[in-house]
Design goal:
The chain is an alpha/beta fold and 317 residues long. 42% of the residues lie in helices and 14% in strands. A seven-stranded parallel sheet has the order 3-2-1-4-5-7-10, sandwiched between helices. The protein is globular.
Length: 317
């Protein structure tokens, strides 16, 4: 990647920062986009992701793009028409970026999609039939389809990655909340849960992205990416506790009862994420690109826990 100019959208985000750091370490000239004015070199202010966003200035001289920017999935979306809003950003906004990339002579675009394209639960491989259910997943799937069609028309090399839940230093949302609960020793009712979930450490995702930027076998492919180390919810709690130097406080309560109580509280979807199965096989990445996740679950969790403690969110006694 020595001297290769690569645009990273969403560069200031949780995943984007790790991707930029890795690409710079590999010798790339990383171009970043931000919504706010910036005096940093190779950093361009760009309007929010949408069908009319102008990417031309940021794309000048770039040979590849990593597209991370997105309207992200949130629980209890307050938009009047969530699907419309997701399509504006994630579908039409992505296509706009890709069209400008073609005009500017970009060779390859790596699109970070989502396992939600496959569905909300199941055991997924790269050949699994897509079954997006929520507006976020639908918008990402439609973006994938439009990118591949543009690739056929223009010759732009497109690679698609669908990660499950991403964790690591800087993580937010529900993973951070669960980490905080475990850190405080609050009892959790998941001791009797017997499920399997796939995760991907941010360092592993960044490494997969870097491989996809240059490997000839990746062109036109859609890959699932994970740590290749599935865990049950109680195992995840134990891994968190071990990394934090705490003891896991798990109580055995029937998963059926947990889900029933969650439904009464309007939290069925959140409960299903903790109780159900969602596994992701990165086998195709290994077979095509000889990719192996460089970080184990234990290392990823240790780095996440160290970051958490450095934030002062855990007062060691």
């Amino acid at each position: 990647m020595n001297g290769q100019r690569i645009l990273v959208t969403g560069a200031t985000g949780f995943v984007g920062q790790r991707v930029c750091q890795l690409l710079e370490n590999l010798g790339a000239v990383v171009v970043k986009t931000t919504r706010a004015p910036s005096s940093q070199p190779n950093t361009f202010q760009v309007a929010p992701l949408g069908p009319n966003t102008d990417w031309n200035e940021a794309l000048q001289g770039c040979k590849a793009v990593v597209h991370l920017a997105a309207r992200v999935h949130v629980m209890n979306d307050q938009a009047a028409d969530p699907l419309f809003e997701f399509r504006q950003a994630n579908t039409l906004g992505t296509l706009q970026l890709a069209r400008h990339a073609v005009q500017c002579g970009v060779r390859r675009l790596v699109f970070i999609s989502s396992i939600k394209v496959n569905g909300e639960a199941g055991d997924f491989t790269a050949n699994a039939i897509p079954n997006p259910i929520d507006p976020y997943g639908i918008s990402k799937f439609e973006a994938e389809q439009q990118l591949l069609e543009l690739s056929r028309q223009s010759g732009l090399e497109v690679v698609i990655l669908r990660p499950p839940l991403v964790y690591g230093p800087g993580v937010g949302a529900n993973f951070l909340k669960l980490l905080g609960v475990v850190a405080r020793g609050i009892p959790l009712p998941f001791g009797a849960v017997n499920n399997q979930r796939s995760l991907v450490y941010v360092g592993n995702l960044a490494d997969a992205i870097a491989i996809c930027l240059n490997h000839s076998n990746a062109v036109g492919k859609t890959y699932l990416v994970s740590d290749n180390s599935d865990v049950s919810t109680p195992q995840l709690v134990r891994e968190m506790a071990m990394a934090l130097g705490r003891k896991a406080n798990l109580i055995n309560i029937s998963p059926w009862l947990i889900e029933s109580l969650a439904a009464l509280l309007g939290k069925r979807a959140a409960a299903q994420r903790l109780l159900g199965n969602l596994t992701v096989s990165p086998q195709a990445l290994h077979e095509d690109l000889d990719w192996e996740p460089p970080y184990s679950l234990q290392i990823g969790m240790k780095e996440t826990a160290e970051w958490y403690m450095q934030q002062g969110q855990l007062k060691l006694r």
